[in-house]
Amino acid sequence: MNYSTIKKLICFIYNVEEDNKVVSSIMAMLKKKAAKIKMPEWFSSLSPSERELPLDHKDSVLITYGDQFSGKEEMPLKVLKKFIKQYIGNSISTIHILPFYPYSSDDGFSVIDYKAVDPKLGTWKDVASIGKSHKLMADLVLNHCSAKSVWFKKFLKWDKKYKDFFITADPNTDLSMVFRPRALPLLTPYDTADGKKFVWTTFSADQVDLNFANPEVLKEMLSIFLFYIKNGVSIVRLDAIAYLWKETGHTCLHHEKTHAVVKLFREVVKIFTPWVIIITETNVPHKENLSYFGNGNDEAQMVYQFALPPLVLDAHIREDANHLRNWASDLKNFSDTTTFFNFLSSHDGIGVLPSRGILSSEEIENMISAVKDRGGRISYKAVKDGQVPYEMNINYRSAITGNLQKKDLHKKDAINKFIASQAIMIALQGVPGIYVHSIIGSLNYSKGVEITKANRTINREKFDYKTVKKELDDKKSSRTIILSKFKRLLDVKRKEKAFHPQSEQIILPGSDNLFAFLKIPKGIKSKKKCSISFGAVLCIYNMSGKILKYSPEWKNFDLSGSAKFKDIITGKKSSAFAVSDGSIKITLQPWEFAWIKI
After folding, report:
1. Are strands 431-435 and 61-64 parallel, antiparallel or unpaired?
2. 553: burial class by Cβ within 10 Å (0-12, 13-18, 19+)?
3. To the nearest 10°, the Cα dihedral for 27, 31, 37, 42?
């Protein structure tokens, strides 16, 4: 094997030569740990081209906490498996279990022990059991760990090994350039055996930043990374990666050495575990987010579409798809080895930053106002002049359906409006990630915010499994209706090669209310004025509360030869389309959408 790129990256990060002991120590660890990892059977059956990006149209991700469901007699991970088996099945290919390690705050993202499963949830055996039926996605929380961790406790004792595992600074140091994602102090005082130290804490006093300028920290994280893979994880989410490298006189955001660390993880995957996908979690403006593909597509294979949640919400609020359309028109596959991770809802809120530069300040303020009206909360971050909105905390169904009366939230039209928003995310180029609260139709958990005083709790409700099961077994409940609609969309996606993450996507022009795009199967190139009857799928959405009548002008495509437009969701000829004298007329009811195979 050729390890030269790995060695060069380590040399760049630590300003050492290839024969340095730092390089040899990290390389020896990588070889030893990787030798114990077996290639999964599903990957060994793929062709060489399929191995370039081991994802296809059958792939989708369910995002859930390990203790999302609880039962009296079984551990939460066992209950989660029961939920997946009974209600999800193979409609979803991958389960993203949010941090299931022992933690002290932030619902798991303040890790106490990276290599343990929280005993309140279950064991590694329980995690592996879920991995028998589905691929596994897990978080590597590498920017920080818990102040309750053994590492930090040893730091407080000024242990020789761990005193450089964390970052300290003189409180008088000018750190005004550092980008702040929270309205909290950057430095937190702690009493150590060597006196009071001011420790770097980007996110909270309980989440102490790790010092990657110390090679031992990187070595430890690479070891943990391979440990997760050994335990069946095939998609690894690098949490809060954009803040990784700290340097005074720098914003400490998107540092060149942070990118080098991502490149290093990618090269480790390429050499030792080529079936593994790295996804970077960077809640920043869209263009900055895309930088984590790397200049030569040598960083993450997937990046989050952080601009998608606010843009879809904005389109629904203003009943205007122009910003969404213009943004999507610029999306493209960067290479055969990269794609996007589409999501609308997650354990966090809807980011404001990713929409800046796409939406105007007035449109952002309008969206924030609408979120407040719909029961949401707004979180802020610190800037030189005070605080600015950072995140909108609201359940996505509550955000989309609006400030309706409670009884109206469960009506057919409100549910269909929500499902239409999710259908955009599922169909767009990339791999869809669906939050558990979306797929089972949850609403704002305002009571939880009152209890925890944390805004994000509004979309982090946990359930007694017996209670939620009763709702899901009721065919008339809104949870059951929403779940069945989700599964229908996902099952259709699994059958259509046009939804491959590497398929060609053409955003079509249209009226303010219309959002439409064409999905062309991977490997089939569109030709000028061609009749596309080779498995292409037209995805079209009415983004308004009015009946939409539209006669599109689709440049480069002659669809007049298509006598039938099959609605692949209903399995019937689409009633939305009519062909007359070579022209196509479309009629969509309020908030209606269709996936049409042509």
Report:
1. parallel
2. exposed
3. 80
CB 311 within 8 A of CB 327: yes
C-alpha to C-alpha distance for 531 and 526, rounded to whole angstroms: 9
Q: Are strands 548-550 and 566-567 parallel, antiparallel or unpaired?
A: unpaired
Residues sharing a CB contact under 8 Å with residue 333, sequence separation 6 or more, in sequence order: 339, 429, 501, 502
* Cα Dmax for the chain: 85
Residue 240, CA atoms < 13 Å, CB-side half-sphere: 23
Q: What is the pTM of this model?
A: 0.95
Look at the block and give the residue holding tokens 């569109």.
Answer: 526
Q: Supply the pLDDT for residue 529.
A: 45
The alpha carbons of the chain give a radius of gyration, in whole angstroms, of 24
* Count of residues making up the chain: 598
Among the listed residues 569, 427, 557, the one whose alpha carbon sits nearest the alpha carbon of residue 503: 427
Measuring CA to CA, which residue among 545, 411, 547, 427 is closest to residue 489? Answer: 427
Looking at residues 208-218, what average pLDDT do you find? 98
Q: Which of 209, 239, 298, 320 is catalytic?
A: 239
Give the whole-angstrom CA distance, residue 428 versus residue 431.
8
**Residue 239 bears catalytic tag:** yes
Distance CA 36, CA 564 (A): 54
In 3-state terms, what secondary structure has residue 121?
Answer: coil
C-alpha closest to that of 344 among 381, 398, 291: 398
**Element housing 5 (H / E):** helix 4-14
Question: How much of the chain exceeds pLDDT 70, in percent?
Answer: 94
Sheet holding 566-567, edge to edge: 504-508, 514-520, 537-542, 593-597, 566-567, 572-573
Q: Which of 167, 468, 123, 139 is nearest to 278 (CA)?
A: 139
How much is the mean pLDDT over the chain?
92
Angle (deg, nearest 10), helices 465-472 and 76-83: 10
Residue among 537, 550, 536, 538 at smallest CA distance from 589: 550
Asked if residue 527 has pLDDT above 60, the reply is no
Output the pLDDT for position 557. 58
The predicted model gives 293-309 an average pLDDT of: 93
pLDDT, average across residues 510-528? 80
> 132-145, pLDDT tens digit by residue?
999 999 999 999 99
Q: What are phi and psi of 437, to 5 degrees?
A: -70, -20
Can you tell me the distance from the alpha carbon of 233 to that of 437, in angstroms, rounded to the nearest whole number? 23
pLDDT grade for 409, boundaries at 50, 70 and 90: low
| Residue-wise pLDDT tens digits, 84-96 | 999 999 999 999 9
275 φψ region: left (φ > 0), alpha (ψ -120 to 50), beta (else) = alpha
**Given this model, what pLDDT does residue 555 score?**
56
Alpha helices in 194-332 (DSSP H): 215-230, 256-272, 286-290, 308-318, 322-329
Do the Cβ atoms of 541 and 570 come closer than 8 Å? Answer: no
Residue that is written with structure tokens 């899901």 in the block: 472
pLDDT for 448 beyond 70: yes
pLDDT value at residue 38: 95
Residue type, 586: I
Cβ proximity of 51 and 274 under 8 Å: yes
Q: Are 37 and 58 in contact (CB under 8 A)?
A: no
Q: Is the pLDDT of residue 556 over 60?
A: no
